[in-house]
Amino acid sequence: MSAIDEALPPFQVFLDEHLEPVRAFLRGMVGPNDADDCLQETFMAALRAYPRAHAGNLRSWVFTIAHRKAIDHYRAASREQPVADIQPAVDRTISAPPADARLGMSPRDSAIWGAVAELPPGQRAAVVLRFAADLRYREVGQALGTSEESARQNVHEGLKKLRKSAAELKEMAR
Amino acid sequence: MNDFVERLAAQASDEGLLDVAYATLETPIGEVVVASTERGLVRLALPGVSVDDVLTRLAEEVSPRILAYPQRLDEARRELDQYFEGRRQQFELPLDWRLSHPGFYRRVLRATAKVPYGEVITYTDAAKRAGSPRAFRAAGSALGSNPIPIVVPCHRVVRAGGDIGNYGGGPELKRFLLEHEHAL
Predict the structure, then answer these.
(1) Mutation target vs B (from A5, A6, A11; most B CBs, 10 A cutoff)
(2) B32: domain range?
(3) Residue B34 maps to which CATH number?
(4) Mind listing the pLDDT tens digit for each residue in A77-106?
(5) What is the pTM of this model?
(6) Which of B88, B71, B80, B75 is nearest to B26 (CA)?
(7) Which one from B66, B95, B150, B154 is the annotated catalytic residue?
(8) What is the 3-state secondary structure (H, E, C) of B38-82?
(9) CB proximity A12 to B under 8 Å
(10) What is the number of domains present in chain B?
(11) What ipTM was predicted for this assembly?
(12) Mutate to test the interface with A, among B37, B67, B69, B72 (most CBs of A within 10 A)
């Protein structure tokens, strides 16, 4: 039986399986304050498209949607900023989240989140998918529309930068 | 998590994207699963059937757009509570018949839905009322495939000799329901 012929699980079963990993991914991408809005939009979009989804590929499929919702969220947020604040670089579709997204976090979480938020968008999405949502490299690639190899590369580069930020934080804490 | 599912299901229902809503109900006979489309009650699963199995079959036979959304089943819950408390003899909630096989099977079930509380008929009576007097065996199969037991009271169809006959939830449950209705 090919993946396409496989029957789709009931949406509730699909939701129970993916809700927490997708929530973790979105918290990493847009911060805890906006994660729930993006989460609702992600699963509404998934429900809308569900009858056309392929049963064999639901995990990367839902993260593709969640990733798109995170990007939409940052585009909307950057439109609300004054013109001078908008990042000039075209490829920075995901800008750093607003500082108030970090309110209510412990200093440690805030520092980690701040460092993750500083990563370039491709690396940030890959790192969060790999570690917050626990996807395999192949699935990270599928979710982001890249090869497994470039997913691995993005995670590697992202981690290198995070280690550097961690070392700087330690320095600052002295 | 439950808050999230509830909000999602409410929005899905508002936007016409929730094809099947379900809930589990505690009743004197145990936990039953009820499921409703936008047309009406489509499935009632008696105790002993796993929720997963019920949902998987609904996904295949109705639509995979299924979520827990008890609000859509408020009316079913109210009428079933009243039935088990002895305060209701007739169900009035709308039914969705799509899970019963069109033709003879559905005619048998629709005829059975009209058998009043506290009365019983035989399999031959049911076959007769569905237009095929000699098809009593097929009538038994139709009743055995009833997707909405209790509400479509297939327990009111018994054998001619006085034996109560088979029941999806087991003969003890059939006896319990008939005694509850003072039909035995």
Answers:
(1) A11
(2) 2-84
(3) 3.30.160.70
(4) 877 765 444 443 333 444 455 544 555 566
(5) 0.85
(6) B80
(7) B154
(8) CCCEEEEECCCCCHHHHHHHHHHHCCCCEEECHHHHHHHHHHHHH
(9) yes
(10) 2
(11) 0.92
(12) B67
